Amino acid sequence: MKLKVKKVSDIQGTIKAPSSKSYSHRAIILASLANGTSNIHDLLLAEDTISSINACKSLGAKITQKNSYLEIIGSSKIHNYSNEYIDLGNSGTSLRILTSVAALSDNEVVLTGDDSLKTRPMKTLIEGIKPLGVKIKSLNINDKVPIAISPGYEGGKTQIEGNISSQFISSILISAPLSKKGVELEVVGEFISKPYVDMTIDIMEKFGVNVLKDNNTFKIKPQNYISSDYVVEGDYSSASYLLATVAILGGKIKINNLFKDSNQGDKVILEILKKMGSKIIVNENNVIIESDGNLNGIDVDLSNAPDLLITVAILGSLAEGKTIITGVKHGRFKETDRIATTSQELKKLQCNVEELEDGLIIEGGIQSGTVNSHKDHRLAMAFSLLGLKHNVTVLDGEAFNVSFPSFIENMKEIGVELELS
Prior knowledge:
This protein is an alpha/beta fold. The protein has helices at 21-33, 47-58, 92-102, 123-129, 166-175, 194-206, 236-249, 269-275, 309-317, 338-348, 377-384, 407-413; strands spanning 3-8, 12-16, 36-41, 62-65, 69-74, 86-87, 109-112, 135-138, 147-150, 156-161, 183-188, 212-214, 217-220, 229-231, 251-256, 279-282, 286-291, 299-301, 323-326, 353-356, 359-362, 369-372, 392-395, 416-420. It is built from twelve helices and 24 strands. Strand 12 and strand 13 (217-220) form a beta hairpin. The radius of gyration is 21 Å and the shape is globular.
C-alpha cells in the first residue's frame, strides 16, 4: 500500500506517546517466566509484540487481553505445548530474546520467522550460549533461523561480542536466572547500544531478579521472577516521528508519557533536535517541542541509538548544511541494511548522500518522488515525513504496523493527515 501526506494544518496539540516496544517485549516475556499473575498496563499491541505474546503462549503462559491491561499467568517451567515451529514473523527482538529462553524448555523448540527474519545474523548468540550447556543448531546450517533449541541450560561462564546487537546480551541476561547454576557473562570488544541492556536490567529488577554488574561483566545467580503489576512507559523511538514533524514544519506540541529519567537510548533525539534548531523542554513525564521549521545539519554518533538512524537522516536531508551520522554499523543488521536502504531511497529523491561503513553523510537536495520502505517500519514512517515539504509517496507504507499501529491517528492528532491507499 502507498503512504503519503494528504493534508497539513497547524502543528499543535497534546498527545500521549505510544508505549515502548522494547519494554513491551520484555514485560511480556518476563511476566511469562514469572510464577503467578502479572498485569501489564499501557502495553504496545503491534505486530512485533504480538509475535512475543503468541510465542509465550506456545511456551505455556496464559495470556488474556482485559479491557485496559494484559493479564499474564506465567511459570518458570517452560514447555513447547504446540510441538510445532514457533513463527515470530518479522520480530527480531522476539527471536533474539526467546532463543535463550527456549533453552529453558523441557522439550525441543524451533524458532522461525518470515523471509526478512531469516536473514538476521544469529551466530554471535548461538556461540555465546553454547558454553552454558545449551544445545542449539541452525537447521539450514547458516547460523540463521529456523533454529532448533534442545533442553538443557546448565549455566556457567561465557563471553559474547558486544558489537553486533545488544539483544544478544539481553537474551542471555533474561534467561540466566532460571538456569541451574546461574550465569557469568562477559561482554568483549566494543559494547554498543548499552542503554538497551540497562533497560533489560531495569525491568528484570522490577520482576524481582537481581543482576550484579562489574564493568562489562554481569553475574546472575539462580533466582525466580516474581509476578508484577507493570506500567509500560512511552517510546522515544516512536515519538521521534512526532517530534521530527514539528522540527520539519514548525509548530508546538506536548507529548505525555515520555519520562525524564528513562533508560531509553533513543531519548537522545531530544538533544539532536535541540542541536538542529528546535526548542525542547523536558519535564518529569512529558516533553514539549517548539520549532520554526528551520533545521541545521549536525554531526552525531548514534552508536547507542541505532533506531534513530533513518529519522535523523530524513531530518538531515531537509537541513541547511551537512549532517554526518556515524557509529551505526549495527544498523546494517536490522529489518533491512538500514544504512544501504536509507541511502538508496534518498538518492531516488535526488538527495546528495554518501554511504559510510558505519553511517551516512547527507547534504540535502530533496525532490518529489516515490520511495520503497522495503517493508521496514522505520523506513516507512521516517520517509513519510518528507511528504511534509515534498510530494513523496512511500510504497509498502503499511509496514508502520510492526511497531506503531496508531501512527496515522497520532499524526492526525497533531495536524498531519496521512493517506494509506
